[in-house]
Input
Amino acid sequence: MSDENEIDYGKLNKRVVFTENEHRHAKFILKYKEDGFKQSHFFRAVITAYIEDDLAFRQFVETIKPTPKRTRKKDKKLREKGEQLMSDLGLNKGDIDNIFDLIEKEHPDL
Output
C-alpha cells in the first residue's frame, strides 16, 4: 500500500528552503491562494516542470538564466570594440540611432 507521503518514490522528507522579504512573501501567499493552489502543490509543479524540461517552463528559464562570466567578458569586449569603431568612424550614438532614417532617405525604394 502506498503511503500518502510518497510521490513517485521515496518519502517527502526533503526541504527546499530560501529566504524572501516579508512583502514579497505576503504577495506570494495572496497570489497562490487566489489561483487556488496550496504552497506545496505550487512548488512541486514548478520542480516537476523544471526537471521534466517542460517546454513553456524551459522558455521561462532561458529568460532568467544567469550569463556565464566568460560570455559577459566577451560581450564587454565586443561592446568596447564597437564603441571604438564608432569613434574611429566619427559616429556618435545619435548618428547610429538615425542611420536607418539616413539609408531610407538615400534609397527610398529599399
